[in-house]
Amino acid sequence: MSDLARRHDFVLLFDVRNGNPNGDPDAGNLPRLDPETGHGLVSDVSLKRKIRNYVELAHGGESGKAIYVSEGSILNEKHREAYKAVRPDEKTDGAKLNPKSDDEAEKLRRWMCANFFDVRTFGAVMSTGINCGQVRGPVQMTFAQSIEAIVPQEISITRMAATTAKEREQRREGEADEGDQRTDNRTMGRKHIVPYGLYRAHGFVSAKLAEKTGFGEDDLDLLMEALASMFEHDRSAARGEMAARKLIVFAHDNPLGRAPAHRLFDRVTVQRSIDGEARPIDARLDNYPPARAFSDYAVTIDRDGLPEGVEIIERI
């Protein structure tokens, strides 16, 4: 695997239709939003989860591409595997394990980075009882925020089947005399959706931090593959239709970079497309119809006066 020699920054645009992109468990699973602006939010943790799931699905079992934070896994048992590799001649079944020296601590961290894609990529805190230290990952992502304010809707749903025989009898007793109208004995539920929302997230790949974890060019290609395809394998009734729409990468020609990330991100502009014309978004002034498709937006990239040594790569 070749080392990562260049810094990268990227903009990810994705959308959702009639789904809940990231429910808030502290708010009854309502779609996350900024209460001051009404803009929707998707946490960085949610996006990283989808990346992990894609890598595990597409490359599970391949050397160096295992996932550390996987569903139902016991993290300490994965730490124990590192100790077995570093201390092959010793018994490592104790309740707690700690490195005996700084050199051994470094070997443990390196083993975890070499074997787990998400440790090598995002870093991890691995000091939970069986201590493998901490790793600061070279890849970081921001919360995604919707381009415009969203209006979450609450949809009532019913279940026709009964859970128990007693519940079935209660339903029969509650049937109305006329037609097929029934009383409230039917099991009811609710789901929350966003009719449509286009979200924007930013990401950063540090070549200098990649040196410490072993994150290389092949890992970067896999990360970009996951960002482009992660929603294709994350379908559910709750999330509706989600799709990655744009992945715009700013590749620098050296490890430290040629320009601040925020100035590069400012080159990517998202506006409303009205009758084929790109118009600025300003909730105080515009009276546009609500967006219901990606085609309702216009995405432009300012390529003029690009800093020397910075290349724009459109992965989607």
Automatic annotation (TrEMBL):
Matching entries from InterPro entries are given as: Cas7_Csh2/Csh2 (IPR006482), CRISPR-assoc_prot_Cas7/Csd2 (IPR013418)
Q: Where is this region: Disordered?
A: 162-186
Any one biological process term the GO annotation gives:
maintenance of CRISPR repeat elements
- Composition-biased stretches, type Basic and acidic residues, lie in 165-186
Q: Sorted alphabetically, which Pfam families does this protein's record hold?
A: Cas_Cas7
Q: Which residues form a coiled coil?
A: none
What protein does this entry describe?
Type I-C CRISPR-associated protein Cas7/Csd2
Q: What is the lineage of its organism?
A: Bacteria, Pseudomonadati, Pseudomonadota, Alphaproteobacteria, Hyphomicrobiales
